[in-house]
Amino acid sequence: MKNITDSFVSAGHWPSVGSFEFNTDILATNPINLSVVLSVLIFFGKGVLNDLLDKRKQRILSTIRNSEELRRGAIEQLEKARARLRKVEVEADEYRTNGYSEIEREKVNLINATCDSLKRLENLKNETLFFEQQRAINQVRQQVFQQALQRALETLNNCFNSELHFRTISANIGILGSVEEITD
């Protein structure tokens, strides 16, 4: 640890005024480089990710609002159905002697149809919410993956020079040659 602090503090490592030197001490330069790269990634990536998440949040909120409107419509239909049910019950009292069983069946059918409609609307709302959430998650994943892949490719392209590339290819050819000799 003392060598690292000495590389920063020591006057022998500081270039004189008007000259430029590369610091080849890997232990001294890597933490600095990593902190600069991480700071830049956090600074610029945070805004992009926040924007993406805000857009997804707005879409999900609008979907929830739409679902709430559907729910309100279903409640209105339920109130209408209840009003109709009350009307049917009044008519049932009037016609009780003539067709009580028929009116009772109508009532049950009306209640079942209303319940079925409410269940379908609730299921539709839940499916829509789930679908939107999954779509939002998948879009964010895809965008993060694409950005990471693009940055990795840029880093690789910036790091590889022709000599390093040639050495890598030669080493891989040597490995394949030794594998081929073993299989023969």
From TrEMBL:
<protein>
    <recommendedName>
        <fullName>ATP synthase subunit b, chloroplastic</fullName>
    </recommendedName>
</protein>
<keyword id="KW-0066">ATP synthesis</keyword>
<keyword id="KW-0175">Coiled coil</keyword>
<dbReference type="GO" id="GO:0045259">
    <property type="term" value="C:proton-transporting ATP synthase complex"/>
</dbReference>
<keyword id="KW-0934">Plastid</keyword>
<keyword id="KW-0150">Chloroplast</keyword>
<keyword id="KW-0813">Transport</keyword>
<keyword id="KW-0472">Membrane</keyword>
<keyword id="KW-0812">Transmembrane</keyword>
<keyword id="KW-1133">Transmembrane helix</keyword>
<feature type="coiled-coil region">
    <location>
        <begin position="64"/>
        <end position="98"/>
    </location>
</feature>
<keyword id="KW-0138">CF(0)</keyword>
<keyword id="KW-0375">Hydrogen ion transport</keyword>
<keyword id="KW-0793">Thylakoid</keyword>
<dbReference type="GO" id="GO:0046933">
    <property type="term" value="F:proton-transporting ATP synthase activity, rotational mechanism"/>
</dbReference>
<comment type="subunit">
    <text>F-type ATPases have 2 components, F(1) - the catalytic core - and F(0) - the membrane proton channel. F(1) has five subunits: alpha(3), beta(3), gamma(1), delta(1), epsilon(1). F(0) has four main subunits: a(1), b(1), b'(1) and c(10-14). The alpha and beta chains form an alternating ring which encloses part of the gamma chain. F(1) is attached to F(0) by a central stalk formed by the gamma and epsilon chains, while a peripheral stalk is formed by the delta, b and b' chains.</text>
</comment>
<comment type="function">
    <text>Component of the F(0) channel, it forms part of the peripheral stalk, linking F(1) to F(0).</text>
</comment>
<comment type="similarity">
    <text>Belongs to the ATPase B chain family.</text>
</comment>
<dbReference type="InterPro" id="IPR002146">
    <property type="entry name" value="ATP_synth_b/b'su_bac/chlpt"/>
</dbReference>
<keyword id="KW-0406">Ion transport</keyword>
<feature type="transmembrane region" description="Helical">
    <location>
        <begin position="32"/>
        <end position="49"/>
    </location>
</feature>
<dbReference type="Pfam" id="PF00430">
    <property type="entry name" value="ATP-synt_B"/>
</dbReference>
<comment type="function">
    <text>F(1)F(0) ATP synthase produces ATP from ADP in the presence of a proton or sodium gradient. F-type ATPases consist of two structural domains, F(1) containing the extramembraneous catalytic core and F(0) containing the membrane proton channel, linked together by a central stalk and a peripheral stalk. During catalysis, ATP synthesis in the catalytic domain of F(1) is coupled via a rotary mechanism of the central stalk subunits to proton translocation.</text>
</comment>
<dbReference type="GO" id="GO:0009535">
    <property type="term" value="C:chloroplast thylakoid membrane"/>
</dbReference>
